[in-house]
Structures are given as C-alpha cells and as structure tokens.
Amino acid sequence: MMVPICFALATTLTVLMTSNRGLHAQMITDAERLFSNLMLDYNKMFRPVLNQSKPVVVYTGLELISIQDFNEVAEKISFTGIFSFAWYDERLFWDPKDYGGIESLNIDVNMIWTPQLMLANSVKKIDRISQDWHTVSVTDLGLCFYIIGNVFTTSCTVDVTFYPWDKQTCRFEFMPANFYDSSKINLFPYEGDAWTDYPENGA
C-alpha cells in the first residue's frame, strides 16, 4: 500500500533554458523532427524506466503562495500552492547536435508518462491534480520538470485548546492516483522550507 506523502518541504525548480550561443539557429523543422523521433513507439502507459522491475523516482516540492481561507469550525483550509515534480524518463533523451542545438522541449502532459497524483484529504471531489492542457519541460538528458499551480482545499484537524494562542498544523496528503505502490514509484520531497515565501501572519 502506497503511503501518502505529506508536504512540508519545497524547492524552487530552475528550468534549463536553451542557449543559442555558438549554435546555428534552431529551426522549427529541428523541433518537429526531434518531437517525432521521441514519440516514435513511445507508450505513456509504461513507466519511464527501461527496467520495469525498478521504481521511478519522483522528486516533489510544494511552494505555498497564499492561504485563501481557514475555517476552524468546518476544519478545512484553502490555499494557493505550486507543486513541482522532477524525474528522469529513460526514453526521452537526445544529442542536441543532431537537432540544431535544442537542449529542451515542452511536451503536452497527455503525450508522455507523468506522475498522476491526487489530493487524498481533499474536502471536495478527489481527483488527479494534473490537467491535459499542462506541459512538461524535458531536457536532452531525459530530465522532466512538471509544475502545477492551483487552489486546493483540504481537511485540517483543529485544536483550540490554547485559543487564542493556538497553533494549527495542516497536512496536505498526496498519493499516486493510479494505484502504484513503492515498488513502482518512489516519491521524495525536495530539501527546503515550504513556508519560506509565505509572509508571516501577525494577527
């Protein structure tokens, strides 16, 4: 049984940008040819490891942008957050020299394997957090970056024993939506502080 991962850590992903210095112009025909070759015989139903007996390692992060609402009576919290995911797809790699120096490519999320996660303690409909219109940034080394931003509403057990000086801890529990266990996919949090960019509430 897959244990839900509870986010308390985060990082900021630096997306690798392609540089044109020292390379000839990157033509749309190069990108089209690269995309066609990458998608040739690609099947997103299979996890992106050549050895299917090994798990996919996915690094995850959460950046809390703002708290939209905190309802102590209903014991729920709504927040704006940005989730970051990174993993290697062993089928998506190429030599930039063969494609006009292209070092990264954006691919629609519904065309390649991605970690489909759901918010396990959502107070609304439990559904995957990804959307078909999202894109994944893929580098020539097969490193995939996927960033999801949204407003999420979760349950949060409230303890008002020491009100009005009480402190509350809310857990955001995410887990694979496709019944993968730890032998198929491993989720690891980035190192960092999820609350760094959130202004302290002095109220």
Automatic annotation (TrEMBL):
Location relative to the cell: Membrane
GO cellular component: membrane
CDD domains: LGIC_ECD_cation (cd18989)
Keywords: Ion channel, Ion transport, Membrane, Signal, Transport
Residue span, Neurotransmitter-gated ion-channel ligand-binding domain: 32-191
Family: Belongs to the ligand-gated ion channel (TC 1.A.9) family.
InterPro entries found in the cross-reference section: Neur_chan_lig-bd, Neur_chan_lig-bd_sf, Neur_channel, Neurotransmitter_ion_chnl_CS
Molecular function GO terms recorded: extracellular ligand-gated monoatomic ion channel activity; transmembrane signaling receptor activity
Chief place of localization: membrane
Taxonomic path: Eukaryota, Metazoa, Spiralia, Lophotrochozoa, Mollusca
Signal peptide range: 1-25
Source species of the chain: Dreissena polymorpha (Zebra mussel)
Membrane topology (UniProt): Multi-pass membrane protein
Record-given protein name: Neurotransmitter-gated ion-channel ligand-binding domain-containing protein
